[in-house]
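User: Can you recover a sequence for this backbone? Please restate the input before giving your answer.

Assistant: Of course. Working from this structure:
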């Protein structure tokens, strides 16, 4: 089955911001497995944690406590000011858990109400429920019938939420920055407004921080920029630094799951949790978040300078989740040219390039990326 279009070579080795293919070609990686490898490729902290834990205990099964999972849960709970953590293997699975938890909460506390307000252009994963929650264009007609109970509203429009927020609703669920949707930020004011609105209505605020969490935006969690606290948060991607790990984090008052409601063979396995602990410590290490902001400023300045030189294009995003929107559909072709020049870039939309390097990317690597990007854009434009 072909589920993705891929170039005709294989990647064989990685180190930091660099990848090598099976022909020995080298690539500067500003995709990093879709914002997953937050410490870059083959980071020694991760390799060490993985090897040490593998030699000790890989998986006693989810029926038993294990030390790495307990350690990571404690750290996440403390850092998020939320109380309870449930581990999963993917962002979609964590979001599926968030949807289930909200529905159970609705059954217990809201007379069986179950509808969740989500955003158009949002992305929450590829299980049936998370595809149903997503607002990705072109997905409306896929895999029908979808899971019912999701109401879609446009981003950054509080009145649109007010208009549909009735007794049938139990939660509002969104990404602080729509990543797959082309790096479209929910404004801080909008997030604060949503927090007030949901609190007044007595419904839950669920933040999908699968892409924005774990330092990606320069704070541990993106919602900290707005100074709001969600009732439920999901984490994925960067939390495992490249290994399959995700988490559902929630306030105690919301946690109405009972034994058997949620689970999975690999959930909370110590091998992945040990990596999660190592990644967590690295992100909260001295100067790490500050470095993200410094590199982000360099990247943003460089992208804006390129847009100015071109006479078109807009830069969006926060931290090391930035986009250059050309406003014209050249991004896919530019990404292809960049690939040929040894630079990995992602075009989530035909007119938009997304930049999600390792969070420990260097100044030199950003400068080199900007140089290769300018070359790819110039080559593409002189063709047209
Ligand atoms: C990637 C992503 C997901 C899905 O995560 P998977 O690990 O691919 O299942 C969900 N939500 C957001 C915001 C994402 O960026």
């Amino acid at each position: 089955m072909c589920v993705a279009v891929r170039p005709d070579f294989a990647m064989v080795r990685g180190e930091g911001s660099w990848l090598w293919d099976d022909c020995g070609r080298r690539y500067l990686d500003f995709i990093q497995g879709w914002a997953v490898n937050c410490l870059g490729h083959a980071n020694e902290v991760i390799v060490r944690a993985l090897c040490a834990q593998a030699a000790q205990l890989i998986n006693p099964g989810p029926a038993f406590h294990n030390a790495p999972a307990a350690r990571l849960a404690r750290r996440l709970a403390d850092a998020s000011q939320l109380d309870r953590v449930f581990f999963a293997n993917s962002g979609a699975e964590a979001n599926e858990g968030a949807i289930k938890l909200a529905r159970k909460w609705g059954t217990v506390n809201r007379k069986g109400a179950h509808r969740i307000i989500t955003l158009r252009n949002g992305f929450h994963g590829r299980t049936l429920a998370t595809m149903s929650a997503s607002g990705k264009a072109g997905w409306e007609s896929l895999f029908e019938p979808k899971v019912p109970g999701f109401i879609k509203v446009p981003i950054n429009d509080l009145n649109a939420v007010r208009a549909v927020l009735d007794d049938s609703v139990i939660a509002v669920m969104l990404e602080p920055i729509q990543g797959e949707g082309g790096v479209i930020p929910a404004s801080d004011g909008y997030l604060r407004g949503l927090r007030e609105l949901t609190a007044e209505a007595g419904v839950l605020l669920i933040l999908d921080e699968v892409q924005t969490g774990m330092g990606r935006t320069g704070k541990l969690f993106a919602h900290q920029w707005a100074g709001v606290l969600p009732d439920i948060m999901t984490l994925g991607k960067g939390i495992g630094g490249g290994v399959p790990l995700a988490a559902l984090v929630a306030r105690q008052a919301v946690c109405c799951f009972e034994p058997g409601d949620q689970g999975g063979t690999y959930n909370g396995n110590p091998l992945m949790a040990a990596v999660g602990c190592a990644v967590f410590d690295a992100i909260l290490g001295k100067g790490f978040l500050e470095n993200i902001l410094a590199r982000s400023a360099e990247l943003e300045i460089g992208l804006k300078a390129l847009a100015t030189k071109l006479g078109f294009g807009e830069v969006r995003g926060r931290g090391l989740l930035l986009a250059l929107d050309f406003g014209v559909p050249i991004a896919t072709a530019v990404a292809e040219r960049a690939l040929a020049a040894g630079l990995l870039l992602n075009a989530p939309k035909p007119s938009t390039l997304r930049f999600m390097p390792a969070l420990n990317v260097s100044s030199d690597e950003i400068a080199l990326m900007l140089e290769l990007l300018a070359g790819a854009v110039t080559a593409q434009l002189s063709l047209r």
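That completes the design. The first strand starts at residue 11 and ends at 15.
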